[in-house]
Amino acid sequence: MPGGPQGAALPGRVSAELRRELVAFRRDLHAHPELGNEEFRTTEALRARLAAAGLRPRVLSMGTGLICDIGVEPAAGAPGDTAAGGGRLLALRADIDALPVPDTKTGRPYRSTVPGLAHACGHDVHTSVVLGAGLVLAALHREGGLRRPVRLVFQPAEEVLPGGAPDAIESGVLDGVAAILGVHCDPKVDTGRIGLAAGAITSACDRLDLVLEGPGGHTARPHLTTDLVTAAARVATDVPALLARRVDTRAGLAVTWGRIEAGHACNVIPRRAELSGTVRCLDLAAWRQAPDLVTAAVDEVARLHGAKTAVSYVRGVPPVVNDAPMVRLLHDAMTARHGADAVEDTAQSLGGEDFSWYLERVPGAMARLGVRRPGVTDAGDLHQGDFDPDENAIVVGAELLTAAALLTT
Predict the structure, then answer these.
(1) Vertex 233, ends 231 and 239: CA angle to 5°?
(2) N or C: which end of the chain has fewer CB within 10 A?
(3) Within a domain: residue 144?
(4) Coarse DSSP helix, strand, coil percentages of the chain, rounded to the nearest 5 percent
(5) Residue 65: CB partners within 8 Å, gap ≥ 6?
(6) Is residue 113 classed exposed, middle or buried when 0-12, 13-18 and 19+ CB atoms within 10 A define those classes?
(7) What is the structure's pLDDT at 74?
(8) Average pLDDT per run of 10 along the chain, which is 409 residues long?
(9) What is the 8-class DSSP label of residue 157?
(10) b/e string for 165-184 if b means 16 or more Cβ within 10 A?
(11) Are residues 159 and 250 in the same domain?
């Protein structure tokens, strides 16, 4: 629960020296992005810096990602030990992987050096935020100023469905954890501000791959075969429309296609068509029903056109559902640092985030961290090669999480 010192009396500020280090750390990560489950360089950079601060980071069993406890006796801090921290640990989570997106920024000295890869979602910022909070909290702990133990969680593979969180949980990152906090870059929010809301703030996101098959034939005689291109077109348009009439519209269940392939010649009806897309849902209960609902709709439409179907429905992530008391904690922490005007309401988005898997196990909340330079009206969007967040947000995020840790007992 919130408690402890408020306002200017609250310790844990990021020094100018540490700010320069965190910005340099972020730029190094940005220049050397790594895909999910391949974050070996990133993991080693984090391990080395935390060890240099006198901490005992532990690489996860998957080989990438790590956790690091502050204020926990070493013997009680091993992953898998449910007594770690006496069940009182507050976890601060960052994701460390990049995206298979080319870096299109020009003139930046920290532009990606890896062709086809970029930190286009701000994970380099998230990582630097949690690292900064950890270094400040470690210094406070040495001075006797940390009343509650904290676990830093640097999680791999957030961008790989169903996310790296389930594997991290399996490896013990939540053992002894009572609550968890995180931040996510938001280019629609000015630097120095955060967006908060209790309840669902993201969408569930699953992957859908379909194969339609038929005997094929000549385009002169579509009545003698299965017109597979037409069948694929009807599936693409009719399935989303059908679902809109079978699910409460407030659930926000939406199928959106990103790829359709069928045929190679203008006068040949193909034997195979493929469709790939995403299923997004704002409501947790409707998300749990989505695989059966979507598969039934696909089969129904395809059968009308004589096509056989094979459906691959890959569970992604449930919605991130923020716990109200933890949102209040983040609100109080941000208010203590920057005043009540630094907090704004945020709306639920259709983006997915595997932070949600942690919230299936323990209470927690994610804040939207403003990364838009003040005065800029169009800061671009996430998952784009030119995404370039304001690095001043690193200190804001680190001090937010530091304050949250100090306000809990």
Answers:
(1) 90
(2) N
(3) yes
(4) 35, 25, 40
(5) 39, 43, 59, 96, 154, 155, 156, 157, 164, 168
(6) exposed
(7) 62
(8) 54 95 98 98 98 98 97 61 65 98 92 97 98 98 94 97 95 97 97 97 96 96 95 98 94 95 96 97 93 97 97 94 98 96 95 95 98 85 93 98 93
(9) -
(10) bbbbbebbbbbbbbbbbbbb
(11) no
Q: Compute the C-alpha angle 27/116/103, nearest 5°.
A: 45
- How far is 360 from 17, CA to CA, in rounded Å? 38
**Quick one: which of 161, 159, 165 has its CA closest to 314?**
161
pLDDT at 409: 75
Separation in Å, CA 35 to CA 94, 206, 406:
15, 19, 33
**Tokens of residue 388, six digits:** 């370039």
Q: What is the structure's pLDDT at 75?
A: 53
Which strand (E) or helix (H) includes residue 194?
Answer: strand 194-196
Q: What is the pTM of this model?
A: 0.88
Same domain, 226 and 299: yes
The whole-number pLDDT of residue 373 equals: 93
Distance CA 256, CA 349 (A): 15
Distance CA 329, CA 317 (A): 25
Separation between Cα atoms, residue 357 and residue 319, nearest integer Å: 9
**pLDDT for the residue numbered 87:** 66
Cβ-Cβ contacts under 8 Å for 116 (sequence gap 6 or more): 100, 101, 102
- Say what the pLDDT of residue 81 is: 45
Structural domain including 361 reads 7-202+319-406
Give whole-number Cα distances, 240 to 150, 288, 293, 294, in Å.
Answer: 44, 17, 11, 9
Q: Find the length of the chain.
A: 409
Total domains, the chain: 2
Task: Read off the tokens for 142.
Answer: 């040495």
Q: What is the pLDDT of residue 339?
A: 94
| pLDDT at site 104 | 94
The rounded radius of gyration (Å) of the Cα atoms in the chain is 24
Place of tokens 């002894």: 176
Token representation of residue 250: 């407030």
User: Per DSSP, which regions of 50-190 are E strands?
Assistant: 58-59, 66-70, 89-95, 150-155, 177-190
